[in-house]
Amino acid sequence: MAETLEELTYDYEDEGTLVRKQIDKTVLTKGSWATVMFLFQELDRAKGKFRPPKMAIVRFKKSKGSYRKQSSFNISNEKQARQIVEVFENWYPKISEIAEATAAIGDGDEVPGDDDAPSDDADGSD
Question: Per-residue pLDDT for the chain (126 aa), expressed as one digit of tens each?
């Protein structure tokens, strides 16, 4: 087990054969819960060649001085990666709007479309 983020690798050997090789790594978050992205290739054993690169987002938890894998998500192809990017690009403007509206609540303003917020019309008539 790795004691530092720098030591983490996505390489994997099976019976002395490298079956998954790390090409690159980016640390997204640090601390007792770390998130790391890996670019890697898996071995096609039948052909004896590595398949096209994939990406993985992996969460690690540091426990007793070592990082242990907690969960991961593989992005298996370019189409899927681009779909994820598209969703992020569509969601972030919405996230910004919600964050601004939520911050406004602290200032005493209502959130547009918040059905649980008290209305100006206490008796419910129009």
Answer: 799 999 999 999 999 999 999 999 999 999 999 999 999 999 999 999 999 999 999 999 999 999 999 999 999 999 999 999 999 999 999 998 999 988 888 665 554 555 544 444 444 444
Looking at residue 120, the DSSP 8-state letter turns out to be S
With a CB cutoff of 8 Å and minimum separation 6, the contacts of 11 are 18, 20, 21, 22
Task: Transcribe 44-84 into DSSP letters.
Answer: ETTTTEEPSPEEEEEEEEEETTEEEEEEEEEE-SHHHHHHH
What token pair was written down for 71?
A: 């969960």
Nearest CA to 69 among 6, 4, 8?
8
